[in-house]
Specification:
Elements lengths: L5 E7 L2 E8 L1 E5 L3 E2 L3 E2 L11 E6 L4 H13 L8 E6 L1 E14 L2 E12 L12
Length: about 130
C-alpha cells in the first residue's frame, strides 16, 4: 500500500493486457489474500487458471477506497482495480520492485512471470 506507482506492462496468454502506472500486481488461484481480504471473487484453486489483478491506487485515500470496495463488494468494482484470468502472465516494471512469494519478501525485480502447469499439484477442494 505504501509502494509508489511504477510504469508496468502485463501480458496475459501472449496478449497485451495492461500498460500504465500500477502500485500492485497480484497473481493467485484462491480468492482471499493475507488477513482474509477477498481479492479474486471468482477464483477457484482447481480450475487451471491464474487470476491476475492490477491496482492503480496511488495514496492512502485511494487505497482506503480500494480495500473498502474489496471488503464490501466485488474487487473489480473498484475504479483502481482490473482483474483478468489466464494460464501464463509476464510482468515488466520500469524500475525494480520488491515482491512476495507466498508471503515471503524477495529482492527487487524488473520482470516476473508465472504460468499454470497442469497436473503439477494435487489440490483437494471441499465438495
Amino acid at each position: 500500500m505504501r509502494g509508489e506507482c511504477v510504469r508496468t506492462r502485463i501480458r496475459v496468454d501472449g496478449a497485451d493486457w495492461f500498460d500504465g502506472e500500477a502500485s500492485c500486481v497480484l497473481f493467485g488461484n484462491v480468492g482471499t489474500i493475507t488477513g482474509g481480504i477477498p481479492a479474486f471473487d471468482d477464483a477457484r484453486p482447481d480450475d487451471g487458471a491464474l487470476e491476475i489483478g492490477v491496482c492503480t491506487a496511488s495514496g492512502p485515500i485511494d487505497w482506503a477506497r480500494t480495500l473498502g470496495r474489496m471488503a464490501a463488494g466485488r474487487s473489480e468494482e473498484s475504479p483502481f482495480v482490473r482483474i483478468t484470468r489466464g494460464r501464463k502472465v509476464r510482468v515488466r516494471f520500469a524500475a525494480p520492485k520488491t515482491y512476495e512469494l507466498d508471503g515471503g519478501a524477495r529482492s527487487g525485480a524488473r520482470r516476473l512471470k508465472a504460468k499454470v502447469v497442469t497436473g503439477a499439484l494435487v489440490v483437494c477442494c471441499p465438495g
